[in-house]
Design goal:
Strand content: under 5%
Distance between the termini: 77 Å
Largest sheet: none
Number of strands: 0
Structural class: mainly alpha
Shape: elongated
Radius of gyration: 38 Å
Number of helices: 41
Length: 782
């Protein structure tokens, strides 16, 4: 957000509030440190010598730069100003072209920091300036000469101690430069803050002459073929320039110029005024009026200003929406893109604004297309991966991340949600649909890009994910507003259910981008889950929105498959979405019918039990526990039958991945649930218990694991097993374990044991035991 105008240099304040760092060609040094006091004294001495000796030598130019290195702390007194005027007007000195901007900047510092300079010196300065621009500018003109001249002329016209006659002369000269030499700005647009500051000073002058003429230059120049390019940063400069000017009028109770702005700019703008400049100027007027609501100026004047500004902004938004045909998430022309960006920043910085359909739809377009342009970025990434221009594209994406537009995304999203609460129902529905579709699109787009970039260009992927993380926060804030509006008794139950399901599906699509625990996120989920829990059709609708088993295990994009092998458990974006389903569905499992669970959920549940991420595997086990524990189905027999059928594959799937990917607590909870909730005497329970305690299978699996260890590892494990078996009181199974350990110890002691068939260890225990001729140590220990 904009900082207060506490700088005496308007151009620097404009730069800071527009997200533009001070230009390296600014008269301030590119180095961060100021010149020393000794260097400053020496610089003034050198300049006096140049005047006395009638020679401006090469080392005098660095002397000027030394002084400007300390612009913030430098004070130029009247004698020093007189020295500068003498140098710049001397006919005996052949000044280089680059010295003029430096000399003018020092005079600008004098004007801005002096409290009461000599009237005679002021008159001299204006006379010198007039002569310089008449005689020297046409020969030695440059963008910097031009900008510093505008800045100094504007400062003279604004200074309270300058006589009215001198102010008028400065304004006349400034207008001539604006109208006749504006092309110089387009050759180096880094000087635009200086030019705009000069205009701001001139508009704020106590002299009324040329006021409309200067306004014309400000709002026309952007549309001229050889004028400066319109950008968001320059738009913000216009916004804060008008804010600064009008705030000054309000403080001075200067109503006449405010009325001119309302009439000439906001209410009846000329055809050649550029919409982007008008839009940002109107936002600046709104911002100034909001800050000055308690001022002593007549409220009628400020009210007219606010109404006129709001009407102009709405008019621009309406025209934009009419041309686009509604909310746009695809690429439009550059002018439309710029206006969308400016509208979003204008609303973010101008404070409260009446809610209306065009503004709301423009904000939606700006958020999805300009601030979080993920769909466009994914498409471009997919295209340029086939070329060698990835470095350029990565820089473009990072520049967006560093832009003032992206940095104010949170404020813009807040304004967007405030607008949602007040717009008509039709507009709400339009934007809701667009947001839900956007969530689906970025899920599909990011899933593809993540598979292509991970391990190949992780830096670019990381930047894209930062943009997506911010988009997730916007979706959460918007969704919270939707739930507050729709999930209440004012709307039919069917509407509430449909909204709840669409929110859950959308959240599943953006779950991958959730990097923190958000109270707004949790509150929204709690609210919508309650609606889904109460309705079977809503629950079924949500369950069936989950990707199918075939979609989860097979990638359908052949352009991606040509470059890589698809491995389902490495698809992190998809995994995050399924994890969301695995966590939410158990809360409404009572409403999931047995056929739906069999057809939709069971395949995915069993698939993700084998996921290497323990968190995901545990969630799959929790899904199984939830279903086994449920029992309020309309067809109880069918549900019980399905439970018993699932147990057999559940045990097989769990034990096959144990202890690798199957979490012990997850499997234990599943066993406890099925023993507790299946009918007593169920064959499924018997199979479960039997699967857990058939000893030979476990001995076989453990033997295979130990045989693959290095020698030191084998010895370590065997010693641990010896100790455990020796301390065991299980007289039933201990003899089998002793014999098995004898065989395993023997095989591990043989050099050729690593290629032995693992079935010899666990399968035919007696034949292997016969080979154990060297087991006295084992017997002694056991």
């Amino acid at each position: 957000m904009a900082r207060q105008a506490n700088s005496i240099f308007l151009e620097e304040w404009l730069r800071n509030n527009s997200g533009v760092s001070a230009n390296i060609t600014s008269r301030q040094s590119s180095a961060s440190s100021s010149s020393s006091a000794r260097a400053i004294i020496q610089a003034w001495t050198d300049l006096r010598d140049s005047l006395q000796n009638h020679r401006f030598q090469p080392h005098h130019l660095p002397s000027l730069k030394v002084l400007l290195n300390s612009q913030t702390s430098l004070h130029v007194a009247d004698p020093q100003a007189k020295l500068l005027l003498s140098i710049i007007s001397s006919r005996n000195l052949d000044l280089p072209s680059e010295s003029y901007p430096l000399l003018l900047r020092l005079l600008y510092i004098w004007v801005r920091k002096s409290f009461k300079p000599s009237p005679a010196l002021i008159d001299l300065a204006v006379e010198v300036l007039t002569n310089v621009f008449d005689a020297e500018f046409s020969v030695k003109k440059s963008p910097f000469f031009y900008a510093e001249g505008l800045l100094l002329l504007g400062a003279f016209s604004f200074a309270p101690y300058v006589p009215e006659k001198s102010k008028m002369a400065c304004l006349q000269l400034l207008c001539g430069l604006l109208e006749g030499e504006y092309r110089l700005v387009s050759s180096f647009e880094g000087i635009l803050p200086d030019m705009l500051a000069g205009i701001g000073y001139a508009l704020s002058s106590t002299v009324d002459v040329h006021f409309v003429r200067i306004l014309n230059s400000l709002f026309e120049i952007w549309g001229k073929e050889d004028g400066p390019h319109a950008t968001v940063c320059y738009g913000l400069m216009i916004l804060h320039l008008i804010e600064w000017v009008i705030s000054g009028f309000i403080k001075s109770n200067y109503t006449q110029k405010i009325e001119v702005i309302s009439q000439e700019i906001l209410e009846k703008p000329k055809e050649n005024y550029v919409p982007f400049a008008l839009l940002m100027g109107a936002a600046g007027a709104l911002r100034a009026s909001a800050k000055s609501a308690t001022s002593g100026m007549g409220q009628g004047i400020l009210s007219r200003l606010r109404i006129s500004a709001e009407n102009l902004i709405e008019s621009v938004a309406q025209d934009l929406i009419s041309k686009a045909g509604g909310v746009s998430t695809s690429d439009d022309n550059i002018a439309s893109s710029l206006l969308l960006q400016c509208i979003s920043l204008a609303l973010a910085r101008s404070g409260s604004l009446s809610s209306n359909r065009p503004l709301f739809l423009c904000l939606a377009s700006a958020l999805l297309k300009e601030i979080f342009p993920l769909q466009n970025l994914y498409m471009r990434v997919h295209k340029y991966l086939h070329s060698n221009s990835s470095e350029l594209k990565r820089n473009e994406v990072r520049e967006h991340l560093d832009s003032v537009l992206f940095k104010e995304a949170g404020v813009i999203a807040g304004v967007f949600c405030n607008q949602y609460a007040l717009v008509d129902e039709e507009s709400k529905c339009i934007v809701e649909d667009v947001i839900w579709d956007y969530c689906q699109d970025i899920y599909l787009g990011h899933r593809r890009v993540a598979l292509l970039l991970r391990g190949r260009d992780d830096e670019l992927l990381g930047v894209l994910e930062k943009i997506a993380e911010s988009a997730f926060l916007m979706v959460v804030l918007f969704t919270l507003s939707v739930t507050k509006h729709r999930l209440n008794s004012k709307f039919p139950h069917e509407t509430q259910i449909e909204t709840s399901v669409r929110i859950l599906v959308s959240f599943s699509c953006v779950e991958y981008f959730r990097r923190m625990r958000l109270s707004e996120y949790m509150d929204t989920i709690r609210g919508v889950v309650v609606s889904v829990q109460e309705n079977e059709s809503a629950c079924v609708s949500f369950v069936e929105s989950m990707p199918s088993y075939a979609d989860l295990t097979n990638w359908q994009d052949f352009s991606v498959l040509q470059k890589m092998e698809y491995i389902w458990y490495k698809d992190e974006v998809q995994t995050a979405r399924i994890l969301f389903y695995l966590r939410v569905i158990p809360t409404c499992i009572e409403r999931v019918t047995a056929p739906i669970f069999r057809r939709v959920l069971a395949p995915t549940m069993f698939l993700y039990m084998g996921h290497p991420n323990k968190k995901v595997a545990r969630a799959s086990h929790s899904m199984f526990v939830g279903f086994i524990s449920s029992g309020k189905d309309s067809d109880q027999d069918e549900r019980v039958s399905l439970k018993e059928q699932l147990v057999f594959y559940y045990m097989e799937r769990s034990l096959a991945e144990y202890p690798g990917t199957t979490p012990f607590k997850g499997m234990a909870s599943g066993v406890v649930a099925l023993v507790r909730h299946l009918p007593a005497g169920s064959p499924a329970i018997f199979y479960c218990i039997n699967s857990l305690v058939v000893l030979s299978n476990l001995m076989k699996l453990l033997a295979q694991l130990i045989m693959n260890l290095p020698k030191d590892g084998q010895n370590l494990v065997l010693n641990e097993l010896f100790s455990l078996v020796a301390e065991s009181d299980d007289v039933t199974r201990k003899p089998n374990l002793v014999s098995w350990l004898q065989s395993l110890s023997y095989l591990c002691s043989q050099d050729t044991s690593r290629v032995a068939n693992s079935t010899e260890v666990g399968g035919d225990r007696n034949s292997v035991s016969a080979q154990a001729t060297n087991s006295s140590d084992l017997h002694a220990r056991l």
